[in-house]
Amino acid sequence: ERTAYILIDGNNMLAGLREHILKKIQSLGVANAEILTTDSHALNTATAFKFVGACDASAVESAVLDTVASAISDIEPVEVGVATKFANVVVFGEHFTAKLLSVVNTIVGMSRLSAIFAFISALLLSLIAFTLI
What we know:
This protein is mainly α. It is built from 3 helices and 2 strands.
């Protein structure tokens, strides 16, 4: 059973284009297919525009079908390999994150006082040094 995952680097797809392309992909002998978009661009706003296929849906359809056909023609026999590995991973829990944030907030609060103290100390030392010279 052939399955195709198509990933397009763009923001969403024009409504109905995905379904239309998926039907055409099935005619190439692919039983299951899914078209995904990365949605990684700055266009993700409440009034997003420039969806994949908005400018030229037929060009997108043609590129996807050509790519799938090319992939099908490049299929070769393979063997499946599976392995399992366990690792000890320390995961910060909800309570640890809260403790860490409280420590950071305390340090930031103390650093303000320390910065003021350091500035006044440096100023006084500078004045003493200049008066002695």
